[in-house]
Amino acid sequence: MIQNPKRYTITAALPYTNGPIHIGHLAGVYVPSDIYARYLRLQGKDVAFMCGSDEHGVAISMKAKKEGITPQQVIDKYDGIIRQSFHDFGISFDNYSRTSAKIHHDTASEFFRKLYDAGKFIEETTEQLYDAKADQFLADRFVTGTCPKCDNPEAYGDQCEKCGSSLNATDLINPKSTITGETPVLKSTKHWFLPLNEYDTFLREWILEGHKNDWKPNVYGQVKSWVDGGLEPRAVTRDLDWGIDVPVEGAEGKKLYVWFDAPIGYISATKEWAAKEGKNWEPYWKDQDTKLVHFIGKDNIVFHCIIFPAMLKAEGSYILPDNVPANEFLNLEGNKLSTSKNWAVWLHEYLQDFPDKQDALRYALTANAPETKDNDFTWKDFQARNNNELAAIYGNFINRVVVLTNKYYNGVVPTPNAFTEVDEQVLTELKAYPAVIASSIERYRFREALGEVMNVARLGNKYLADEEPWKMVKENPERVQTQMYVALQIASALSVLCEPFLPFTATKLKNILKQSETNVSWNDIAKKNDLLPAGHQIGQAEILFAQIDDAEIQKQIDKLEATKTANKMENTKAEPQKETATFDDFTKLDLRVGTILEAEKMPKANKLLVLKVDTGIDVRTIVSGIAEHFSPEEVIGKRVTVLVNLAPRALRGVESAGMILMTNNAEGKLVFVNPDAEGVLNGALIS
């Protein structure tokens, strides 16, 4: 670990521009990295917080083909959405760049060329899958087939999403091109590889020995597993039509593999920022007194802890990351987040649905951060954290302090009288919090740090509840001056300590307290009793955290339920057509409209209802296997389609003379045949 670094370079994983940002991205990467950067700035540190859109690779090409537009149109669309979402949510990047920018193409090309000229790559001709009809080599994601490990028939060429196994496209059984549906053939092609096996000793010394005690167990464990499993050469080029050209002769039609060019995006973003700011970019990447920290999700650990460091080591002039505090995954309402299935809470939609509630989401995601294990986001928990914690604890304390100060002293901070032992104890406890919170942040325990910030609000609430100035103001106004003075110091401290976590709230509170005039710093809290000095004028109370009502939450739950139903409908395949029937066959069926007059459960039979049905020609008994889907009361009065000339059949001693026609909706529930019924799909089998 670097002690007392001169500067900090903080990177947040570059989001793919094939879709918007969702809460999984925020919880895993962007909220924790923003907390860290904001905290360091409050400490007066030199910080370069870098990110940008990852705009190359197969995911972009696939999205373009699916939408019938160009890759450039895809990246422009989603870069705009992502960039605006980050801005509106308060993620404080010093620079948010794009890998389609010329400065990135130049930087990545120069990086490759330097390694190429130094002989750091190996060149190999390999057999890869080729779609003859499309006349192109197939990147991993353009191939699907049967997983050789779990027999999943819809595995991709790089990974089986059912069993989680990493694959090569050539491993798949019965591979198919997703472009044309054709069976691909093997064809020889030349590529360049980074021989990771040559960096085994370096990685063992640097990580497995050097960072044994300071990297998170989930990160260290994954790295150790990869290194112990044996490292192999990794391709750095690909046969693609979208990306950065490989800058050597004989590489026409080949692009830099996206995993190679994307992390270089951190460097090009820093170059772009430094040029705008009139700074030298190199110390932020090449000075040993710089602390480099990568914020990523667990799916990027191998790239940032093995492959990118090997690239930097091979280049020779760059520093290595001091830490890579990767988070685990955030699930949504008990299910894995999925961009392709629209099972997500999209940031840009949240900001529309919950205006001015950025901090409510930042709080919920931090308080429930997947720092050591996968966690689950639910809308009910989000509501509870806003209403029962932010509003009831933090907001309640601030409101009482500001309202009472305005009521008793016209908003002027009162002059304190002698401090009691309780006052001294509270002020001493308050002074300890900056160091406690800082320690948690510097160890990347942001959930723990946020808990301590809320403990400051709890300290204030308890102090007011115990002292009860509203009761004492008539009998001992001198004592109340001291009480309110102490409470105002806690409020002032909160406006600073919460800033990394709740930046919009911090700004509101500083405006209420008119704190910009007093310029309180993080370090002042531990040293001073008069963060808000006597005689200072504060403003009027404002609601910091509005309650979120049940209707707002139900709207979000309903939206997810609609997504779940849509996914089921999309994935439902119609039964294959039965053998051909003649017109004469069809005319044998006598179908009538009927009404169910009576219904009761068949004794000792869970699935059967005994129905009395008026068919228009008679009233007859029909036994139907629908009892697990409908109660007798639900079906009485239903108009139904009846096959009346079905040969009678005795079921449990009751003769059934006909059949009620049914089908299933997308959720598998039986419904009476009615094409307009909710959830009935084209192709639904009537039986």
From TrEMBL:
What Pfam families does the database record attribute to this sequence?
Anticodon_3, tRNA-synt_1g, tRNA_bind
What family does the entry list? Belongs to the class-I aminoacyl-tRNA synthetase family. MetG type 1 subfamily.
What's an example of a GO molecular-function annotation for this chain?
methionine-tRNA ligase activity
Identify the InterPro entries for this entry: aa-tRNA-synth_I_CS, Anticodon_Met, Met-tRNA-synth_bsu_C, Met-tRNA_ligase_1, Met-tRNA_synth, Methionyl/Leucyl_tRNA_Synth, MetRS_core, MetRS_Zn
Q: How does it assemble?
A: Homodimer.
Q: How is the cofactor bound?
A: Binds 1 zinc ion per subunit.
Q: Which NCBIfam families match?
A: metG, metG_C_term, PRK00133.1
Q: What PROSITE patterns is this protein classified in?
A: AA_TRNA_LIGASE_I, TRBD
Reactions performed catalytically: tRNA(Met) + L-methionine + ATP = L-methionyl-tRNA(Met) + AMP + diphosphate
| Protein name per UniProt | Methionine--tRNA ligase
